[in-house]
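Quick one: structure tokens for this chain, please?
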Amino acid sequence: MAEDTVARPVEANEPTTQESTHEPERYISPAVDIYENEASGLVVLADMPGLTNEAVSLSVEKDVLTIKGVARESVELPWVYREFTPVGYFRQFTLGKKIDQGAIKAEYKHGVLRVTLPFAEEVKPRQIEVKVA
């Protein structure tokens, strides 16, 4: 990803297209790892523990990939002391033109969201056959 970045985090001072950033809920930015896989493109792994599959959403609008997870209390208990409260997750990435946005896939398993960002056909490396005359 050294060259013209294919996917990069949206900076704090950049405008976002997602209106939910102004909701009164509290969000944290999930830690992510991004790596390149020649066969499938870029892979984003986001740590988002404590969610159900239905609570995770992914959208692309105006070249911005938005990852959102909404955590809810499953049971209200009469807490005496508490250090952990469920919190939502929110993170955005600007996608370059090298990503095939129509083929993005995602799966959520064991608290980790895996998003596959395939390269567009024109940027995939290909082998050219040389014919001997």
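The chain is about 0% helix and 35% strand.
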